[in-house]
Every structure is written in C-alpha cells, then in structure tokens.
Amino acid sequence: ARRVEALGDGADAELLRRAYLAVAMVHRFGMSLGRNHLAALLDCPEADIDARILEPLGHSLIPAGPVAIRTRHPVVAHAVSSLLASDDGQRDAMVIDLLKSLPGGSVADNSVFHQPSELIRRVRQQGPLAPLTLNRFFEAGEDAATNDQLFWYDRGRVDVDFSRWEAALHHFDRALWRRPGDSQQRHHNAAVHAYRARCLLNLNRRKEALAATEEGLRLSSQDAALLRLREKLGGRPPRRDGGGPGGRRGGGGQRRGGPRE
C-alpha cells in the first residue's frame, strides 16, 4: 500500500500505476508478464522499461528471467490489484488491455503469460462473468489465439450455451489439434468432436454429425457421450461381446468432461 501511495502525481505516475497493475493482474495467478508485452500495453519502447518502470518502482517489480517481470509474490500481486483497480469494471478493462496487447506466439518459459486462455480461464474461476464481459474478453484475445486450442474450445462452449450453433461450430473447428499426439490432446479432440456433432445435429446436418461422432470415438472409444450420440444418430450398433466400444466393458464409458479449466 505504501508503494502505491508513494507513486504520487508525478509525470509518470499514471504510467507506473498502469504498469504495476498490469504485472500484478497476471502475477496474482502465478504468471509473469513479458517485457515486450508490457511495452506494447504501455506504448513504451521495451528498451525504456528498466529506466521508466522498474527503477522508479524500486523492488516492487522484479525481473522474472531475462524476458519477463513479476511482483515480489502472488499475494502481493493480489493486494496491489485490489488497490489499483478497486471495482470489477477497472479490473475487466485491464484484462481486456492485457489480451489486446498480447504478442502471441510461443515462449521458452511457460510461466510467462502468452496464451489468452491462460488469463481468461483464471479470471472466470474467480466468479461468474456477465455474458457481455466474457464476450469482450474473447474478442480482445482472438488475435493472439491462433495456436490456443483451449481458447476456441471455451468460446465454442459459450456459444453452445446460447444456441449459437454456426458460431460454435466455427470455433470448435479451430479448437482441434491438427495432429493430436499425447492422450491429453486426443481426449481434447474427442470432446471437441462431441460438441461439433451436437452443433451439426442442431443445424440438421445429421450425416456430418455422425462423421464427427465417429471421429471422436476413434480418438476415445469409450466416451459415454459420444456413444450416446452415435446411438441417437443411427450409427453402427455397439458390439455386445464386451470387446469393443460400447460393449460390456466399454459401454459405461468415461464421462466426458472436456479439457480441464
């Protein structure tokens, strides 16, 4: 609190408050903020970050490796966020600014905030958001979400909640791993195909819905939701000998929960 009060009303006071809040809003969730990201958000040359931001703030903001910045502790970051953004509107505005200025792309250190879903999911875990606010988050983050499958998966699920089937289908198409490798990616794609099938069915595209269901079962043969969809769509019946999907051992299936938030 003393550090925040000490910012005063100098020429760069508002810039320092904005920088401190941006880093704190990310670090309260355990992530650091890239220097290039902070520079873009502040419209300040990255080469000036040390002199204009870090030095005036003393030890309040510290380097997190060579390319990122954090506060001294996530608990401090949470307190600073509450002080510098005292209401939901101010916090939401900073989330939107962080998403809009996100450079995107990969990073060597995965603790650096670099994908929109990393922030949106954590903010949603804090409590329910108004649909309009959530939609603004998605719109702000979409330019940096090219390779963020979880972003498109979550956006598609929101569309489904509002029966926006065409939009949901478009977003689920972007949520697919093109070459799923490990079991987590395969499970993710199976969950996506289940939602795709639901969208296609509501758009009266039954043949495509069945194809999506079969593709999901190819990835996760015991998925109970996909097995029910296949039965509803008139696909090939499950085997009764217990040796295949839907049989005695497979029919119970694992409840489809989708990728974890």
Number of strands: 3
Distance between the termini: 32 Å
Radius of gyration, Cα only, in angstroms? Answer: 22 Å
> Strand share of the residues?
under 5%
Biggest sheet architecture: 3 strands, antiparallel
Q: Which bin fits the share of residues in helices?
A: 55-70%
Mean pLDDT: 88
Silhouette: elongated
Note the run of SSEs as H and E: HHEHHEEHHHHHHHHH
Main-sheet strand order equals: 1-3-2
Q: Ranges with pLDDT <50 over ≥5 residues?
A: 240-257
Structural class by SSE content: mainly alpha
What's the helix and strand layout?
Blueprint: H1 2-5, H2 13-27, E1 33-34, H3 35-42, H4 49-54, E2 61-63, E3 68-71, H5 74-84, H6 88-100, H7 116-125, H8 131-141, H9 149-161, H10 165-175, H11 183-202, H12 206-219, H13 224-232
Antiparallel strand pairs: 1-3, 2-3
Helix pairs in contact: 2-5, 6-8, 9-10, 10-11, 11-12, 12-13
Core attributes:
mainly alpha, 261 residues, 3 strands, elongated, 56% helix
What does this structure look like?
This protein is mainly alpha-helical and 261 residues long. It is 56% helix and 3% strand. The protein is built from 13 helices and three strands. The protein has a three-stranded antiparallel beta sheet. A hairpin with a 4-residue loop joins strand 2 and strand 3. Helix 6 packs parallel to helix 8, helix 9 packs antiparallel against helix 10 and helix 12 packs antiparallel against helix 13. The radius of gyration is 22 Å and the shape is elongated.
